[in-house]
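Good morning,

Attaching, inline, the C-alpha cells for the sequence recovery test we're adding to the shared suite. The designed sequence is right after.
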C-alpha cells in the first residue's frame, strides 16, 4: 500500500526555509537557531550567486587592489592574492550574518582574526566558519565556484572570548554545507540528519528541496587530485596512484573544491589533496574547507580522513590551520589509506 503522507511531502514544493522549520518541529527542544542562521546564509549566497553570474558584466573579475575592502594591497591571510569577488563575497556574508543574534563569531578565509559579534552571556552560541568564494581562480573562465560554511556550537563555558573559545575543544559541528555556483546554483546542507540538496529557483528567488538524504556510492573508480604535483606527494600517495593507473580508474579534477566534492558526493570516487614537499601540512584549510566537507561526506555515508585519522576528530589549533584531505566513497578512501599505511 502506498503511504499517502510520503507522497504529499515529496510532491510538494519545499523551500529551504520551510524545510528547516519542519526539521526543527521534530526536535521539541529546538530553539529556531538554525532557521535564523540559515536564512542569513541563504540570503548571502543568493546575493553572491547573482554577483558571480554578473561578474564579467560588472567587471569584478580579477585581482583586488586592497583599498576599502582589501587588506595589505589585496593579499589575504594565506599570503594569496585576493580576487575582487573574494572580497565582495566576504563582505556580503558578514553583512547577512552580522545581525543574527545567536552568532558569537565569524571566521573567514579572508580575514586574519575572527569577527567577534557577541559574548556567550549576550546570547552568542555559535561560530560560523566560511570560505566566501572557493575556487575563485576559476571565476575568470566561468568554471563553477562555491561558498563553504560550517556552524559550530561553542562550548558552554563562561569567561572565554575570541579565538580561544572557538578553538576550545574538539569541534562539534552543528551544521555544514556549501553552495555551488555552477550551471545551476545548488546548496548541499546537513544539520546532522543526512544531506539534503536544494536548487536555487531563480524565477521565484528561493532554494527549493530537490533531493533528501543523499547517499554517496560506496565505490567508484574516479580519483580527483592535482596529479601534476605527483613528484611532491608522499610515497604512499604515489604508489596508490600507480595502483589506480593499473586498475581502470578515471580522473576528474576541476580545481574548485566545491565542484570536485559535489561530483564526488553525487557520483562517488575520491578527492585527495595530500601534503606535498613544499606544503607539509597540505593546502586546504581545516575550519572552513576540510571540516564542513568532512561532515557532509560522512553524513552521506562516505569517509573523510587526513590520512592519519578522521578529519572531524581533529582539535583545531589555529584559525587558518591547513590539513591534508582524503574524502569520498568509503571503499575508495580505504584504498588510499591502505597505501599510506603500507
Ligand atoms: P580558494 O579559491 O578558496 O583559495 O580555494 C582553492 C582551493 C580549492 O578550491 C581547490 O581544491 C584547490 O585550491 C586547488 O588547488 P591547486 O590549484 O593547488 O590544485
Ligand atoms: Mn577554498
Ligand atoms: Mn576562497
Amino acid at each position: 500500500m502506498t503511504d499517502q503522507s510520503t507522497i504529499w511531502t515529496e510532491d510538494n514544493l519545499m523551500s529551504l526555509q520551510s524545510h528547516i522549520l519542519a526539521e526543527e518541529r521534530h526536535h521539541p527542544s529546538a530553539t529556531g537557531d538554525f532557521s535564523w542562521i540559515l536564512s542569513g546564509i541563504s540570503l548571502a549566497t543568493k546575493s553572491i550567486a547573482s554577483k558571480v553570474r554578473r561578474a564579467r558584466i560588472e567587471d569584478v573579475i580579477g585581482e583586488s587592489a586592497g583599498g576599502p575592502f582589501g587588506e595589505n594591497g589585496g593579499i589575504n591571510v594565506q599570503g594569496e592574492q585576493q580576487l575582487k569577488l573574494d572580497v565582495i563575497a566576504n563582505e556580503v556574508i558578514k553583512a547577512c550574518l552580522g545581525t543574527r543574534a545567536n552568532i558569537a563569531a565569524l571566521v573567514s578565509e579572508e580575514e586574519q582574526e575572527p569577527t567577534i559579534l557577541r559574548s556567550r552571556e549576550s546570547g552568542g552560541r555559535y561560530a560560523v566558519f566560511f570560505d566566501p568564494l572557493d575556487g575563485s581562480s576559476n571565476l575568470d573562465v566561468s568554471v563553477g565556484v562555491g561558498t563553504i560554511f560550517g556552524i559550530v556550537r561553542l562550548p558552554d563555558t563562561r569567561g572565554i572570548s575570541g579565538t580561544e573559545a572557538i578553538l576550545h575543544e574538539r569541534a562539534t559541528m552543528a551544521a555544514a554545507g556549501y553552495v555551488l555556483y555552477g550551471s545551476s546554483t545548488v546548496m548541499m546542507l546537513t544539520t546532522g540528519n543526512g544531506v539534503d540538496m536544494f536548487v536555487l529557483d531563480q524565477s521565484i528567488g528561493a532554494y527549493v528541496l530537490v533531493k533528501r538524504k543523499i547517499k554517496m556510492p560506496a565505490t567508484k573508480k574516479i580519483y580527483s587530485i592535482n596529479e601534476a604535483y605527483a613528484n611532491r606527494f608522499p610515497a604512499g600517495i604515489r604508489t596508490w596512484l600507480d595502483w589506480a593507473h593499473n586498475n581502470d580508474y578515471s580522473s576528474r579534477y576541476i580545481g574548485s573544491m566545491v565542484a570536485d566534492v559535489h561530483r564526488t558526493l553525487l557520483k562517488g570516487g575520491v578527492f585527495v589533496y595530500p601534503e606535498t614537499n613544499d606544503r607539509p601540512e597540505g593546502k586546504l584549510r581545516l575550519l572552513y574547507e576540510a571540516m564542513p566537507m568532512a561532515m557532509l561526506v560522512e553524513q552521506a555515508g562516505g569517509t573523510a580522513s587526513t590520512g592519519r585519522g578522521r578529519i572531524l576528530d581533529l582539535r583545531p589549533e589555529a584559525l587558518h590551520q591547513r590539513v591534508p584531505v582524503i574524502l569520498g566513497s568509503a571503499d575508495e578512501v580505504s584504498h588510499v589509506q591502505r597505501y599510506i599505511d603500507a
